[in-house]
Specification:
single chain; 282 residues; alpha/beta; Helicase, Ruva Protein, domain 3; 2 domains; 7-stranded mixed β-sheet; two-stranded antiparallel sheet; binds S-adenosylmethionine
């Protein structure tokens, strides 16, 4: 079955009583070239394991199972499970998990599977792009790369530099963990139903952190806090997050060599590393 052909997938969905849920970000690909291009871009080979987030009716899954050793597809919508059984069940190397990806312990899953290197590949549900990316960046799973379709605007933000309007906490976290590439753009007409926005496929290649920190969780908290309220100064945001006085936060910022009026968007990951270590103390 061609899983991007409307005249084939409409009867499939009807047979299973499936209707699109806007709140679950269900925009399925109907341009046959795109799942192929995404699967190719993720670089997965016959010895590799891939985690797919949100398989939908399985058009990308089908491309991944033909390239990878094993595909684990996590789909929140239970109505899609019998559909996937029909569309990709015949492949022996795919496991569909009916779960919210945000509740999946990816590190434990890899351990259970004996997986030493994990590729992530997905056409993401846009309403939770950022939490998913942050989860993938912060989890302890042996992730090698993350190839995902996201809103075009977010892709631009993820590739932005400090001191620009697009730069934010996710960009800073991405810069710590990965090298990011903006691969290609996909127009709304490639989806059913068509979203209002254009999309881009990006790839994050996980690399060793370019800077050492005393405590990674503190480092990520500092980044998140710095952008929590963009109108507030960094010292206010740090004081809030770490339950310290504004004077203490200002002292830490000054000890790191920054002005007390500095704002989060002006700082690189090297600056955040200094601040996080300053908060950890000796
Ligand atoms: N991969 C399919 C494609 O490219 O046509 C579908 C992509 S669609 C943009 C996003 C998919 O993610 C939907 O199937 C949706 O049900 C699923 N989804 C939404 N929220 C999810 C979550 N929290 N965990 C896992 N899957 C989720």
């Amino acid at each position: 079955m061609n899983l991007t052909n409307i005249s084939e997938i409409k009867p499939l969905m009807e047979r299973h009583g499936f209707s699109f849920s806007k709140s679950l970000g269900q925009n399925f690909l109907i341009n046959a070239a795109i799942p192929v291009k995404i699967a190719e871009s993720c670089g997965v080979g016959p010895e590799d394991t891939v985690l797919e987030i949100g398989p939908g009716i399985g058009c990308l899954t089908k491309e991944l199972v033909q390239r990878a050793k094993r595909v684990i597809s996590v789909e929140i919508d239970k109505k899609l499970i019998p559909v996937l059984e029909e569309t990709v069940g015949e492949f022996g190397n795919v496991t569909v998990i009916n779960e919210d990806i945000l509740n999946v312990d990816i590190a434990a899953l890899c351990e259970k599977l004996g997986c030493k290197e994990l590729y992530v590949c997905a056409n993401l549900p846009y309403y939770i792009t950022t939490p998913i990316i942050m989860k993938l960046l912060e989890c302890d799973a042996p992730i090698k790369s993350i190839t995902v379709m996201v809103q075009k605007e977010l892709a631009q933000r993820f590739c932005s530099k400090p001191n620009t309007a697009e730069y934010g906490s996710v960009t800073a976290s991405i810069n710590y963990r990965a090298e990011v590439k903006n691969l290609f753009t996909v127009s709304p007409g490639s989806f059913m139903p068509a979203p209002k926005v254009s999309s881009s496929v990006i790839r994050l290649d996980i690399v060793p952190p370019p800077v050492a920190v005393k405590d990674e969780s503190v480092f990520f908290r500092v980044i998140r806090a710095a952008f929590a309220m963009r109108r507030k100064t960094l010292s206010n945001n740090l004081a809030n997050e770490f339950k310290i006085s504004k004077a203490e936060a200002t002292e830490i910022i000054k000890n790191c060599g920054y002005s007390e009026t500095v704002r989060g968007e002006a700082l690189s990951i090297f600056d955040y590393a200094k601040l996080a270590d300053g908060i950890c103390g000796d």
